[in-house]
Design brief:
The chain is mostly helical. The chain is built from two helices and no strands. α1 runs antiparallel to α2.
């Protein structure tokens, strides 16, 4: 039983990493949805404050996408 513990821990660790990665992808979807109203306000109503929120949201999206991109590259290169 003790000899199987490292394999069990490794399995739990790998599952946790997958969950974290999927959460990041989910955050991208949430971020796009949250910025949608501000995009409409900026382009249709010329609301400058909404434009600022859109720019911040797009920067957050870029950073999150870059994190995921780096993880995908790392996983691809470890095969």
């Amino acid at each position: 039983m003790i000899e199987q513990l490292p394999n069990a821990c490794e399995w739990i660790y790998l599952r946790f990493k997958i969950i974290i990665r999927m959460e990041k992808f989910g955050k991208i979807k949430e971020l796009i949805a949250s910025v949608e109203a501000d995009v409409e306000k900026f382009y249709n109503a010329n609301n400058g404050a909404a434009g600022t929120r859109v720019r911040k949201g797009m920067q957050d999206l870029k950073n999150l996408a870059q994190e995921i991109r780096a993880e995908v590259t790392e996983k691809k290169n470890t095969k």
